[in-house]
Structure formats: C-alpha cells, structure tokens
Design brief:
Keywords: Signal. This is TIGR03067 domain-containing protein. The protein is an alpha+beta fold. The chain has a single domain, classed as Lipocalin (Beta Barrel), CATH 2.40.128. It has an 8-stranded antiparallel beta barrel. The relative contact order is 0.21.
C-alpha cells in the first residue's frame, strides 16, 4: 500500500504539470509600437536597476543590481547578448507588456510605473499572463521591482 502512495505522489504532480497548456506564440499578443515612442513607451526609455526580485514566492537576491534597458521598442538586460522586443497595452488594467523575439514563446507580463519605480510581474514563457503582482510556489511567475537610474 505504501508503494502505491509513493508512486502516486510522484506520478500525479507530473501528470498535472504535463496537462498545463503552454502557448507557443512567438510574437506580441498586444499591438506592437508603430512610429515614435510616446506615452508609457517614452516613460520606460532608459535604465532601471533591479531592487527586488522573487520567483514562485522566493526572493532572488542574486538579481538585485541587474539593469534593465528600454529603448524605443527594444529591451535587454545588462550582461546579456542581444535584445528582445516589447509591446505595451497601457490602457489595460493592469497594464500589459509582452516580451518577444519571434523565436521563443512570448513572455506575458503586467507592469506599473510609480514615479521612479517600475514593477513587472511576468509568467514563464508560454504561460498565461498574471492578473496581479504576486508570486506563489509553482506559479511560474517572477515579480521584479526596479528603480530608474
């Protein structure tokens, strides 16, 4: 009997995880920027230093100090090679941002700008967009707080 419970303890979570549908869309799910940067695109331009980061409910102090760069409709993190594009929907509530490279599944996220602070809550590639700024164990979410440099 103990053996059956041991097998179920391993198999059930694996089956549950394999049932989660991942979207393989590789482009923005919100309208991309056309023309010059205005509105929130303009507000995001520049450098933002990570002051706090957590994934699945656990702090990731190793990410503090990373620098996010936003320029027009491109985004990159200091130290990384290359960039990805981003697209915003500033009229949504909460505001939405998509990070994409036309190769890997789109990263769906929400964001808010409060003075000199940018807060982003993103889902793992292919997972549904978060609806609030929180993470919990197994959520596949990252919450990142940054300050303008």
């Amino acid at each position: 009997m103990k053996t059956i419970f041991a097998v179920l303890a391993v198999v059930v979570p694996v089956l549950a995880c394999s049932c989660v549908s991942r979207d393989t869309h590789t482009g923005p799910l919100v309208a991309p920027l056309e023309g010059p940067a205005t509105g929130d695109y303009k507000k995001l331009e520049g450098e933002w230093t990570v002051t706090y980061c957590e994934r699945d409910g656990k702090a990731m102090a190793g990410r503090n100090g990373y620098v996010f760069h936003f320029q027009h409709n491109r985004h990159w993190i200091s130290g990384n090679k290359g960039y990805e594009w981003y697209a915003l929907d500033a009229k949504a509530s909460p505001k939405m941002i998509d990070f994409y490279d036309h190769k890997l599944p789109t990263i769906r996220a929400i964001y808010r700008i409060e003075g000199r602070q940018l807060v982003v809550c993103s889902a793992d590639p292919g997972l549904p967009r978060p609806t609030d700024f929180s993470t919990t164990p197994g959520s596949g979410r990252i919450l990142t707080k940054t300050e303008r440099r």
